[in-house]
Specification:
single chain, mainly alpha, 5 helices
């Protein structure tokens, strides 16, 4: 029985990996189909009896349904956290605007724009296979840090 669970776990990992590589992970997750797929594959490879097939299917179905529920809960928590953080950010921005003069606000917006542009360039260089570009960005960043301090 222990070997059966190990094989089942390995099969599940393989199925998830192959789906992720094909980009299917963005589709709606269907516990019934997934449990059936795993059960069919195990039945084929291990010559399971009908009773074993039913038990294996139910085992995987229960676990996959639980995983789907956990995933949905996590996504709801993330959404709530994101909304909370956005609200806090807006509140802080409003307070900051009360403190700064119009000239300081304009200067601060320009600074934020420049920083955003630097991050964008760095992100683009990081995704680029041309690592020399990335190294150059790091060196420029170091030089800026030394001249500021």
């Amino acid at each position: 029985m222990k070997n059966l669970l190990i094989v089942a776990a390995l099969m599940l990992v393989i199925v998830f990996q192959s789906q992720a590589q094909r980009g299917e992970h963005k589709r709606e997750f269907n516990p019934e189909k997934m449990a059936q797929k795993i059960t069919d594959k195990m039945a084929e490879k291990l010559e399971l009896s009908e009773d074993q097939k039913q038990k294996v299917y139910q085992l995987h179905l229960d676990r996959l349904q639980k995983r789907k529920e956990q995933h949905q809960e996590m996504m709801e928590k993330r959404k709530a956290m994101r909304e909370k953080m956005e609200a806090e950010h807006k509140e802080n921005q409003a307070k900051l605007e009360e403190i700064l003069t119009p000239e300081q606000k304009a200067k601060w917006e320009e600074i934020k724009k420049d920083e955003w542009e630097k991050r964008r360039k760095y992100r683009d260089a990081k995704g680029n296979p041309d690592r020399e570009k990335l190294k150059k960005m790091h060196q420029e960043k170091k030089k800026e840090g030394e001249s500021d301090g």
